[in-house]
Specification:
With 372 residues, the protein is an alpha/beta fold. Helices cover 46% and strands 13% of the residues. The protein has 16 helices and nine strands.
């Protein structure tokens, strides 16, 4: 049989002066389909996390589909087999022959160990976007007005909590806070702390447990996030935390807080400049403000060095910039919009005089210690 690919004419673009390079077209098509593969693998990661498959594989050595189905609570062996073969094809689990598959310790650190690994990532995979959300984003391209976080539904707050949780739980108290001048001493003796854009309260809970003499407030305009934070506080018995469904602009007008945090949220806000001024008013003269935000450069070309750049811009349109443009007049910084130079300039404009940059080897973020 004649191979059709060897005899078919090279494709011709209506905008081209001649035939296109078939190998180049095929290579570009492969690149495009690779993103579709990523979409499907993302769904499989979500299912593996949701169904407890990764956790069931953690430390168990090579498993057959039947063994894994039983360990995961009585799932269907046939479905587990198909999932395992796909995971092996994606090089997320190791194939050991005879339909036996293993999750390595490295794989477990990224896919299974949510409580003990800074590298845990499976919680970031939510199973895709609803048609309603995609329709809303398409409309935002026409109107210029984006969607708030609450438009993404309660699952968005849960996904964000799990995605950002490892660094808040595992690094904030032992590594980050001790690097700040005088903050730990205040927390140990009793301080009033505010987390603006607190989400579900992961950072607050880590500090509240470590520093029981301090009182912690959390502000977030997402009612889904605040509801989840309050549920977590009640279930874990925290008495020194309180959460408020409020905007960052609504801080007290007088200096009452010893320590303020904004973690991965300023670039999502419609008016971060106004929030910064509100923080300056609410922070005591000897207080500290800790900003955590995405590593980026002011020049687009320099950001090309980031191997996850396309994902970052996808996050921006789907969530961060959308939120930052969800009201008329929003600044629309987006995921990569609060680089160090802009953060330094904006905090100075808000009335702060000291700005110190920290790099704690967080792959995605830098930390800024800001003082009046």
């Amino acid at each position: 049989m004649t191979n059709p690919s060897s005899t078919a004419p090279s494709p011709v673009s209506p905008h081209s002066t001649g035939p296109l390079d078939r190998d180049a077209v095929n290579a570009f098509a492969f690149q495009v389909w690779a993103y579709k593969q990523g979409e499907m693998v993302s769904l499989m990661i979500h299912l593996g996390d949701r169904l407890g498959l990764y956790r069931a594989m953690d430390g168990a050595g090579p498993l057959t589909p039947a063994e894994l189905a039983a360990r995961a609570g009585g799932l269907s062996e046939r479905w587990v087999l198909e999932w395992l073969r796909g995971q092996a094809a994606a090089k997320l689990v190791e194939y050991r022959g005879d339909d036996r598959f293993e999750l390595t310790p490295i794989g477990a650190a990224v896919l299974a160990d949510e409580s003990g690994s800074l590298a845990f990532a499976a919680g970031a995979f939510g199973g895709g976007f609803s048609p309603e959300l995609v329709d809303g984003l398409a409309e935002a391209f026409r109107t210029g007005i984006g969607l708030t976080y609450d438009h993404q539904g309660p699952s968005a707050a849960h996904r964000t909590e799990r995605m950002l949780g490892p660094w808040a739980r595992l690094a904030l108290v032992p590594t980050i806070l001790p690097a700040l001048d005088g903050v730990v001493a205040k927390l140990e003796t009793g301080a009033l702390v505010l987390d603006v854009g607190c989400g579900a309260g992961v950072a607050i809970f880590a500090m509240a447990k470590a520093y029981p003499k301090s009182v912690f407030h959390g502000y977030d305009l997402s009612r889904h996030a605040i509801d989840r934070a309050r549920e977590n506080a009640a279930s874990d018995g925290f008495a020194n935390v309180e959460f408020f469904a409020r905007r960052g602009e609504e801080l007290p007008p007088q200096p009452v807080y010893d320590f303020v945090l904004t973690f991965d949220c300023l670039h999502d806000m419609t008016r971060p400049d106004l929030v910064m001024r509100a923080i300056r008013r609410a922070l005591k003269g000897d207080g500290t403000w800790l900003i955590k935000d995405i590593k980026s450069h002011p020049v687009f070309e320099k950001n090309f060095r980031n191997p996850m750049l396309a994902m970052m811009y996808g996050f921006s349109i789907a969530s961060c910039m959308s939120s930052a443009l969800s009201e008329p007049g929003g600044m629309g910084l987006g995921t990569l919009g609060l680089h160090a130079e802009r953060a330094r300039a904006m905090t100075a404009e808000a009335g702060f005089t000291r700005f110190r940059q920290h790099d704690f080897e967080d792959p995605a973020n830098l930390y800024y210690e800001v003082r009046p």
